[in-house]
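Thread: Iron-binding zinc finger CDGSH type domain-containing protein, structure

OP (GT): Posting the sequence first so everyone is looking at the same thing. Length is 64 residues per the record. Can we get the structure tokens written out before standup tomorrow? I want them in the notebook alongside the other entries.
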Amino acid sequence: MPTPRDKRRVTIVPGGPMLVEGPVELVLDDGTVVESDRFVVAVCACRRSKRFPFCDTSHRARRR
């Protein structure tokens, strides 16, 4: 199991989410702590996600 001092890789996706190698613990601006034990976590960068702080692909342009 990784220790808190182990490096994590964060990949910035242009126009999309930040991909963080997990497991992760996210602290939101109101102090709420959200955890995920997935091996890669998509963190919303645009705040449009209904599952914020996790990405649900709401940033994608809608096409008909």
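GT: Both are above now. Quick notes for whoever picks this up: The first strand starts at residue 10 and ends at 12. Residues 10-43 form one domain.
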